[in-house]
Amino acid sequence: MKLRHRESMWVCALVAAGCGGGQGGSLGNAASHTSNAGEAVLTYFGQPKPQLTASSGEVSMVGQAGATFSAVTLEPPPNLDDTYLVICRSELGVSQLYKIPYASGTAQVLYQNASGSAFPAISAYGTVAFDGTDDNFDNAYAVRADGTGYTQLSFTGLTNVTCPTYSTDGTNRLAFTSNGGLFVGPSGGGSPTLVQSNAVFGDTPRWSSGGNQILYEVATSGSFNDLYTTASSGGTATDATPTALRNAGELYAQGWSADGVTLLAAYSPGGGNAEIIKFPMNNPSEYSVLTPSGDDDYEACFSPDGSKIAFYRANVNSATPGIYLADSTGGNQQLWIPDPAGGANEAELGMAWSPFLPKETVIAASGATFYHQASSGFLLSQNGAQFGSLVAFTATTPATAAIQAPSSSGTGAPMIFTLTADSITQIGYINTYFSTGTIVSPATPSALVSVDATTGQVDLVAPSATPKPESSRNPDGTVTYNSTFKAVFDGAGKNLAPSGATRIVLNPKTGHLVSLR
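RE: above sequence
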C-alpha cells in the first residue's frame, strides 16, 4: 500500500453522502467530487474537512472526517511483499501450519494439531484450508490467516474429505477429493458437485487462475499416476502428462501458473528421488526438470504472478535442507529458509503461496468486511509498501467529526491522533487486511488513537469523556494523558481498563502503553 510519494499505489475509493446531521439521508441531486489523498482516490458528496497526512519512519497515514462516508474500498496493486506462504511440517509427532510472510521470511505458527494436518491452500480472502485427521477420518478444516476462526468444512453426504483447494477467480470455490472422486463445493462447506470419479484419493487438486479448469491426479498402474485436467463443471478429462512420463512414475500436482498454461509437478520415477518438473499443458512433448541431478525436491508452488517458484529440498546429495526460491524458469535457486537445527527432513506436508490481496470494501452499510455502517471519518496507514491499519469512526452529527494529527513526528516516533465529534457513537479498527476488527461503542466526544511508526498498526484506542485529553511530557521521556477515559483498548481489542482510567502513560518511541490508572 502506498499513500505518499511511493513507487506502488493503493486506490482507496470513498463515497461520502453529505456532511450534515444524520447518517442516513439521500444523496438527492448532490454532485459528486473526486480528489486525491496522497495516492488514494476519493469520491464523495458534500464537503468533508480537509484531508490530513502524517508520516513517521516508513509509516504513512491519510485521513479525513466531517462527512458521511458511505463506502470505503481498498484496491491494493499486486505486490509480492503483501503475500505469504503457508507450509505444513510434522515435528516429533506434532503437525504444525506455519505462516511465512514473503517480505520477512520469518515463520509464525498458525495452527498445530497432534492428530495431524497437511496440504494447506490459501483463499484470496485470507483463509487457509487444510487436510486434518479426526476420529480415523480425513476431514477438511479452515483457519484464518491470523490463526482465528478454526472450523471444520463439512460437505453433504461425504466423509473422508481431503486436500481442499480454493479457486482464486473470485468465486472462492473449493476443489477436493473424497473416496476416489474429485468434487467442487462452496468455500464454507455445503452441497458438493462431483466433477470426476477417477481422482486419486488424498492428493491435492490445483485450480487454473481463471477458475474454469482443475489439475488432478489419476492412478494408472501400480503406484504410478498421471496428471489430468478437467473443466471445473465436469465433462471429459484430458491427460496433461508429458508423453515421456505417462505411466512412468508418481506425479503429484503442485501448481498452475498465472499464465494459465504452465503446470508444476513433483515427479518420482520408480522409487527414486523426487524432482520438480514444469511443462505446458498444451504441448505434451515438452517438459523441463528444475531439480539438479541427485537432489530430492518436492512440495512446490508458484508465486501468485508466476514469477517465482518455492519448493522444499531434502538433505540428500549434500544439499542444505529447507525451503528454496527460484525464478519462473527454475533458475537462480537460492536457499530461503533452512530447516531448524535438529529438524532436518522432518516431514514436509504441503506448501501454498497466497494470492495477491483482492479489492475489498471495508466500510459500508452492506457488503463490508469490517465496518458495517457508514463512517464519519477514517485513518488509513501503510508500512512501507504494505497495509498497516484502518480506523473508522461514526458521530451523531457527521459534520462535527474531526481528526487532529500530531504536530510533529520524528523518525521512529509514534503518531497519536485525537478523534473528536459531538458524540462518537462507534469506533472500529483493524491491523490486518482481512481482519473482522475491533468495534467499540463509546458515546464520548473524543478518543485517543496511537499508531506505531514501526508497524503502522493501531497500538491503543482510548475513548475519552472530555473533548480533548490533556498531555504532558515526563522527565523519562514518556507522555502522560489525563482525562476520564471510559476504556483503554490495545491493538488486539482487549480492554485494559474495564472500569475506566484517568491517566494513561505512553512510550513516545513505540506508542505502547507504559501504565494506566
